[in-house]
Amino acid sequence: QYRTCVELLEQMQPLKMVSAQMFSNAVLLTPERARTLTGAGLTNLQISFDGYGDDHDRYRRDAAGVGSYRKILGNMGRALPAAPDLHVTARINVTSANIARLDQLLDELATEIGTDRMSLRFGLVDDIGIGFEEAPERDQITGARVLELALHGVDLDFEVEPLASQGTCMFCGVVGGGSGTVINSDGTLYSCWESVGRAGYEVGDLDSGYLPLDELGERWVDCSYNVVGRETSVPALMSIAGTVDVAVLDRTYERSLAAEGVVA
Known about the structure:
Elements: H1 2-12, E1 21-24, H2 31-39, E2 44-49, H3 54-59, H4 69-79, E3 87-94, H5 102-112, E4 118-124, H6 140-155, E5 159-160, E6 182-183, E7 188-190, E8 202-205, E9 209-210, H7 213-216, H8 230-259
Parallel strand pairs: 1-2, 2-3, 3-4, 4-5
Antiparallel strand pairs: 6-7, 7-8, 8-9
């Protein structure tokens, strides 16, 4: 929906838009598109990675069965120099199958793309009722590994964003759209990307805005509304997120002191 995104960005400019984020798999990213999008007001591009190398390609293949990992890196390497004001968030989707080699993904991103305009956002993949068998356990072992990866990202000079946890999403975290919105390509509004396109979860449209709060009811859902085992999964993830986020803040602070020649 490249053309739709450009048109939307251009129409938002008179409203004094201060930031805009786009989620993409970067398969169709080109220098020309990056320039046009940033010229229209795009400030951040989130690009998803489902693992390192062939781990990613197990999940992300085109119609011919060819994986997209190398193509994404190549597209990023060519497009980002053409859009110097564009910041990139590398969304690292963590599964039980790819978690062992994610440090190699971070190393390659740092080497091939650089860290000055890129941040990392880790997300533990859920089973949302489709029988996904590689969702990582929300346990101490997974938490320790994610912590290790996050600190490795900090040591590579990446900005590591807070670990995604339900209730803090920039889109669905505030009922009624006080913190953001998800806009489908047909102009329909949804509270969360998880519910986009699902009948009964529409929360408004571009022409009329959001439905009144008393009409939203169960239409307004957060990121975990259809997660299998939500009652135990969500609290466990929030516990992991708290531990990781505190450690990342501490490590970042220590590195900033060291850079200034101060001993903590």
